[in-house]
Design goal:
By secondary structure, this protein is an alpha/beta fold. The protein has one domain: Nitrilase/N-carbamoyl-D-aminoacid amidohydrolase (4-Layer Sandwich).
């Protein structure tokens, strides 16, 4: 099978324009023979880079931060909304599976989510279990119902988001699901993220698509302006360096089950990274290591995973 890891930028914080860009990219990679197309973390409609690079991002009751969050919410899709329906229709028409990172809106909360869509209409959703550091200003926490894979003709496809790759028990749960392909989504795949992605491939004996984005200061402001973002929020984005400076540098790569690169990391380039995957490599790698099988010790170590979906309020009609 062929996998395509897209590291083109979104139309930053402009949901309709980013959907149009996603549709065009999906069609392009499908025309290039891709069976699975992978997008970076919260690509729809853009990773909240101001949390890392705007000095005032964490100030209490800060008008620009509040306005920027409001604008982000206005451009965050719902899983059952028309924007995701458009992407699903594109997946169905191209026959190319999709893994999309998005800001998912549910009630009054945003989640850092990973959406898996198959051409036959099946979907799976993973929500990041623990937003990292300042990300907790933006996203809620996922639950065990999102520890999922999507079955494809090429094996099970699953994924984790960013620092979830340093949650040992989350990794153990995903390994038990028997991933053939694991999507590791990052804002961009810096060196330590390459280490985590390669380690996951070796430990899980699966292919890993490490997915990062390339985006400049100019991309950020042009995208925001194209959506008529509030001027008070723009001030936050203007704090992040020059127009030509790359805020996110890509680094997308595809890694084999032995931890070696099938496609070396690509930095600073707006492109799609392709790799052809040979499923036989998974079977051969399991000769020496299967962390959910012959290399496990269930007589000593066990893990219980609650896969229920948890809500604060449950309504019972008594029926």
């Amino acid at each position: 099978m062929r996998i395509a890891v897209i590291q083109e930028p979104p139309c930053f914080l402009n949901l309709p324009a980013t959907i149009e860009r996603a549709v065009a990219l999906l069609r392009a990679v499908a025309d290039s023979g891709a069976d699975v197309a992978v997008f970076p973390e919260t690509w729809l409609p853009g990773y909240p880079v101001w949390l890392d690079d705007a000095p005032d991002a964490c100030l209490w009751d800060h008008a620009p931060a509040k306005a920027l969050f409001r604008h982000l919410r206005e451009h965050a899709p719902r899983i059952d909304g028309p924007e995701i329906a458009t992407l699903s229709e594109t997946v169905a028409s191209t026959g190319c599976h999709m893994v999309m990172g998005l800001h998912e809106k549910d009630g009054g909360t945003l989640y850092n989510s990973m959406l898996f869509v198959a051409p036959d209409g099946r979907r799976a959703v993973h929500r990041k279990l623990v937003p990292t550091y300042t990300e907790r200003l933006v996203w809620g926490r996922g639950d065990g119902s999102g520890l999922v894979t999507l079955d494809t003709p090429h094996g099970a496809v699953g994924g984790l988001v960013c620092w979830e790759h340093w949650m040992p028990l989350a990794r153990a749960a995903m390994h038990a699901l028997g991933e053939a392909i694991h999507v590791a989504q990052w804002p961009w795949v810096k060196d330590i993220h390459q280490v985590a992605s390669r380690h996951y491939a070796f430990e899980g004996r699966c292919f890993v698509a490490a997915s990062g984005c390339v985006m400049s200061g100019d991309d950020i402001l042009k995208g925001f302006d194209s959506a008529s973002g509030p001027p008070v929020a723009r001030a936050m984005l203007e704090q992040m360096g020059g127009a030509s400076d790359l805020v996110l540098r890509g680094g997308s790569a595809v890694i084999a089950p032995d931890g070696s690169y099938l496609s070396e990391p690509s930095y600073d380039s707006r492109e799609t990274v392709f790799a052809d995957l040979d499923a036989d490599l998974i079977e051969e790698a399991r000769l020496t290591l299967d962390v959910d099988g012959h290399y496990s010790r269930p007589d000593i170590f066990t893990l219980s995973v609650d896969t229920g979906s948890h809500r604060n309020v449950e309504f019972d009609d008594g029926g």
